[in-house]
Amino acid sequence: MNKIKLLVVTCCFLALSMNAQNTSKEYQIRTIAFYNLENLFDTVNDPNVYDEASPIMESKGDTAKIYQQKLDNMARVIAQIGTKKTHTAPAIIGVSEVENLRVLEDLIANDYLKKFNYGIVHYDSPDFRGIDVALLYQKRYFKPVHSKNYELKLTDNKDGKKQTTRDQLLVSGYLDDELIHVIVNHWPSRRGGEKKSSIKREKGAALNLQIIKEIQAENPAAKIITMGDFNDDPTNNSFKKILKSKGKKSEVNPGDMYNPMENMHARGLNTLGYRDNINLFDQILISSSLLDRDKKFTDYKMYKANIYNPRFLTNKKGRYKGYPYRSFSYGNFTGGFSDHYPVYIYVIKEKK
Length: 352
Known about the structure:
alpha+beta, globular
């Protein structure tokens, strides 16, 4: 009797195993990332912007050598983001704090990145320091079909004069065969204090919402990703009251934006240290159409969101121990990387 039972159990197990093998699926996975490159300036003085105050221009050492090391450091990090799952660099990566097109061309030509054949979408912004946002993409995976920069219009609270800051960059294109829309942001800083400057970031959120609604007016189910250094945490008013982003999947309705970084923030995770506080300013949000509600993954859906913070990107000693290992401090090049950690998401779908 025991032998019969054992035989029945064995047969059932084999049947289940065979069924599992028959229903197993292969998935296509891509990395989409964002990285604040911390003052990636060249060594040429541009008379049209205030770049002479950039850390690299103020450095006391060999600026050409520092510039090359900075490029090496940034390229090395980008080449590694998300490789644990995809075995390649990000298919798409938004970047901020870049001076111009030249530094981006130098970056993608670097030995760490040139094999990936990145393309560039970039516009010069009116920011007084001359820093811009941009989008880099592996040409074999992503094909842009439309791009536009949106000016964030600000005025000084005291005298009403126009203030200049970074544009918001929209790039629409096909990730493999699916149309997605990516917005790259670098919202106004907290200079002057968080409360006094919050109105500027709330205006940044309002512009972001305007772009999202313009896309959804044409296609309510559009796949939208908004990313950047927002200079606000996921729970600030810019996100919760203006963008009305949701931190729980169960609360996301059609047309809403889901912020996977909100849960990370609640768990104490961070992407930078700012004035002895830790913050999660670097974020990637997705539209409801990219949520994995049905677990079917017949088209691209977000699989996971992460902060890329390996040990070599973290300061191991001194006053800023535990903070991102930045590249400039008090006018000197430290040999580090950036004062921000990169963030990224994986999107996956079933292979056909």
